[in-house]
Amino acid sequence: MARLVVLLRGINIGSRNRISMPELRKALEDAGYDDVRTYLQSGNVVLTSTASAKNVSRACERLIADRFRLEIAVVARTRSELATVVDRNPLKEVAKDPKRYQVSFLETKPSAKVVHELENVAADREEVVSIGREIYAWHPAGVARSKLWAKLAGKNLGVTATARNWTTVRKLLELADAD
Fold first, then answer.
1. Residue 15, by phi and psi: left (phi above 0), alpha (psi -120 to 50) or beta?
2. CA–CA separation, 156 vs 134, rounded Å?
3. Interatomic CA distance for residues 11 and 18, integer angstroms
4. How far is CA 81 from the centre of its chain?
5. Among residues 18, 29, 102, 147, which is most buried (max CB within 10 A)?
6. What pTM does this model have?
């Protein structure tokens, strides 16, 4: 059995794609997952499963479609993969505000073309680093007017992706480590 972090894209933002976390936990438990925990209302789940992260992602998408009638993209990482994301932290020297430091979790590695486009759209003080299936992005002036954030949050990456700020990333690793 492995601990997995399951990230739902774009739920509970305003009035659309609403899913109650207690109902989501119950649905996942009913589907056979163990030790199901959620963090915040934005689709962060830690659970235990014998299935691979990719298979859990697909199963969760089907479960959400069937149970909640929503088409929600899901990306999952093992506890070990999330620990690597945290340990790697390529922007630790500049990203001092965890609320303005984002990690985008992608289903597959982005193309070189997409990475180049992200680098080109970053504002003067913004930084972006792509490593494997993660994109680290530092937004010192916030995300509200950031063209980099708009590109990362959009659906033009050519791959399923969802982002979390550094505070949430670290908290999810803590939850994955908790008994």
1. alpha
2. 16
3. 6
4. 12
5. 102
6. 0.94
pLDDT of residue 17: 82
- The tens-digit pLDDT sequence of the chain (179 residues) is 899 999 998 786 767 788 999 999 999 999 999 999 999 877 899 999 999 999 999 999 999 999 999 999 999 999 999 999 999 999 999 999 999 999 999 999 999 999 999 999 999 899 999 999 999 999 999 988 899 999 998 777 889 999 999 999 999 999 999 87
Structure tokens at 27: 């649905």
Q: For residues 107 and 41, give the distance between their C-alpha atoms in angstroms, rounded to a whole number.
A: 22
Amino acid in the structure at residue 13:
I
The residue count of the chain comes to 179
Domains and CATH numbers, the chain: 2-79 (3.30.70.1280), 86-177 (3.30.70)
**Residue among 175, 164, 156, 113 at smallest CA distance from 134:** 164
* Local structure of 56: helix, strand or coil: helix
To which residue do tokens 């590695």 refer?
109
- Judge whether 172 and 46 are in contact, CB under 8 Å: yes
